[in-house]
Amino acid sequence: MRGRRIPIALPNTGALSRRRHALYIRSAIILFILFAFLQFHVINYDSNESGPSDNANYSTAAILQMVPPVFHKYLTSKGRNATHGQNGTQLGMGDGALRSANISEILRMIHRYNELQTILNEDIFGPLQNDSVIIVVQVHKRITYLRHLIVSLAQAKDISRTLLVFSHDHFDDDINDLVQSIDFCKVMQIFYPFSIQTHPNEFPGADPGDCPRDIKKEQALLRKCNNALHPDLYGHYREAKFTQTKHHWWWKSNRVFDQLEVTKYHTGLVVFLEEDHYVAEDFLYILELMQQKSHELCPKCNILSLGTYLKTFNYYTYNKKVEVTPWISSKHNMGMAFNRSTWHEITHCARHFCEYDDYNWDWSLQHVSQQCLKQKLHVMVVKGPRVFHIGECGVHHKKSNCESNQVISKVQQVLRVARRSRQLYPKSISLMMASVAKKTKLRKGNGGWGDQRDHQLCFNMTLIGR
Residue 293's domain spans which residues? Predict the structure, then answer.
């Protein structure tokens, strides 16, 4: 007897195809959302490239809207009034008197400031603790950028515990008034005493008897100009406007670590900023995390770095990541911090710093690391930057619009996105997978530092004790 034939159900190929197609669509949507989410956290703040908002309003009014009203006072100029420090000491000249002051009067005031070592707001915030953070800002005369740096510092967590030191190489009433109006932490001003402003017609300014930059050495010897025997390694003679920055950096570092009374017993970190930097509100918080973890993650690291020159970065991926690498001047010179022991290792190599034929302080410091230090400089750098560069113009770069708000506005947007997406204040930090460190080649200096008068002035700064 034949068995009964049982019908076999064939698959519905149309239904399977539809389900597969729907799965592909759902997968594509999920991937797109994930990509878009990640792209939201990939920030570009270069003024020459597209950023988080290409159609953003970069007006002064728009920037003010991003700043809490209580800090607007740092962004607007006010009438000049004399400001008094402790014991009624006058710290500024009101009514524009300085505009007509002669050089000898400016020098007198500079020496007076440096002698008094007045700490503003100490009566409010108390004396500096030995392990507190000191923030040193190198200031020239770009007050617009300085205003925004101060606004960013005012919003930083725990800023009231710090000492904020402004080191000036240009004496200016408006800048002094701005600095002396700071009320959110202790403040000190120091003044580089060998500036071009106070020595316009003599070394370290431009002496009329100095050799022109591009004159040949043979002609210079015939002319018997002051520095004829000492052109730089490219055959050029010194330019005062370029030598000043390296002198100022070296002077202020010596001054802060080894000459100020307030730092006599200081063992904490010193953070180095410049007038055209901008800080995230958690930069001190991150710095403390890095310091706590440095012994575990990188015992040989003697510098911590909070900045980056990358124009594109991803807070979502890297907000709590740090990287360890040999210190490289072109990458790790922004928002860097170190302590007194590292500084004293550097000053033991003062000759290498002061005689290296390069007018850049950071290239000179890298030369010290490579050629003199027993323990080379190593840095722990945060991958999600907490210090930004907002300066469009400076010693090396000139643009048609040096007061552009675009970069400032984009940095504000970067930090707003990071804040809203909770990428600031990570609970911990972790080390990125270490990449194979390329051996840093010894580099030829950039020149501009062949004059032996510069060598000696620089070296003499290390000989002045407290």
Answer: 91-460
